[in-house]
Amino acid sequence: MKTARRQELRTNELSQQIDQIGDYVKQNAAMLTIIVAAAAILTAGGFWFVKGRQSRVMDGWAMLNDAEILKDMRGAVEQYRTLAEENRTSALTLAAWLRIGELAMSKVANPDVAAAAADPNWSETAANAYTRILEDFPNDVSAVGLARISLGVLAENKKDFDNARKSYQAILDDSRLADSPYAVQAKYRLDGLARWSQPVVFAPAPIVTTAPDPLMTPPSVMTLPLLPTTAPTSGPAVGGVPITPLPSNPPVATTQPAG
Prior knowledge:
The protein has nine helices and two strands, in the order H-H-H-H-H-H-H-H-H-E-E. It has 259 residues and is mostly helical. Helix 4 (90-109) runs antiparallel to helix 6 and helix 7 runs antiparallel to helix 8. The radius of gyration is 47 Å and the shape is elongated. Mean pLDDT is 74; it is low at 219-246.
């Protein structure tokens, strides 16, 4: 009996709560409609934002792999720099800076007239890209190693051997790069830097203090026999009788033969 009574009380209490909710909805229908619509808009907006961002990221990767862009190297660098500055994703940003450094270093290693006319500062472009990598991606070990090696080479090209030495030494001091190819390259360049930084001195030309040996000296033009400049007046002798050479232009007869 008591159990049935308790069940009846619970049912009545639940009915009262439902009625109260219904009354609240009726009284605040407009506000609830606005809240539901706003939630739907936010959900849809968030969905399209995510889809749009994903699409832009895919477009960025496609740009980095588009060979047509490379026909204009200066334009390609500008597009990659814009892509990196937009920071669509960290991976895409890093890839864009690496591509800029790669293109600029290729121009530094193989300069040509067209590239120099379009942009005389390829070294500066490469240095800026690799510096950004060191600043923004210090935890990417491979990118850090490549950036430091490249900055060292660029410093060497400018004969800034102190900064080149610092770049190579920073690789050797980084335990993360101890077993990497970058450490091997850094040690090789660091060991040779002392020799490469020394100016090249050429030995003076020997001074000849003895007279030249006439037997070893080729005859000058003046010692050669002179060639005749006029035709001979008589031919070679045959049997002791000289032969008169024929004139080059025999005379033409001016009279008719008799008869």
